[in-house]
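As the next step, I selected for study one protein, both as residues and as discrete backbone shape codes, as given directly below:
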Amino acid sequence: MRPILTAFAQSPDRGRGLARDMSVRWALEEVGQPYDVRLLTFAEMKEPEHLALQPFGQIPTYQEGDLLLFESGAIVLHIAQTHEGLLPGDPSARARTIGWIFAALNTIEPPILDREAAGHAERGEPWHEARGPLLERRIESRLAPLSGRLGDADWLDGPFSAADLMMVTVLRRLGGSGLLDGYPNLAAYVARGEARPAFQRAFEAQYAVFLAALRA
């Protein structure tokens, strides 16, 4: 049975591959699982039909038979646990990989999202300009140990895994900020992730939705 993924009919990221369905698309492409996509407008995301799947009115959701999931990290973990290729077979390595998935979402991403939110919601407030450097220092307090942990390895813990998929997805949100410039190994890490054929297929699929919305 082909899973069904929900995604923005018109993404606010303007085709940069940052919408939350991107990591799920990428995971499905990595494991070779065909899938269908149901596109939603912002109004449709707040309607009862979608709220029954995602109580906060967000995307993505994932339907596979009777299974209904929301939260991109949970969906990616489910895909990794039910398909070969994104989690190691060794129990200890598997546990470490899952730990890195949580680190990407719970440790690395929050200050990045804080900076994004400040740029959108607080611009024009009297404290905005002074708060910017503080937010960037918080991000760098996460990037420095991550860079040290990665070192000169290609991936976080052995072969490419769901942990790298989630971490690269999170770090891509810093594109254009200059915050990765001081960490060339992290910049190269992101580039390796983006060079994977599965990432390219996922990006192209998401970008095609953006182009279609522009033409509509």
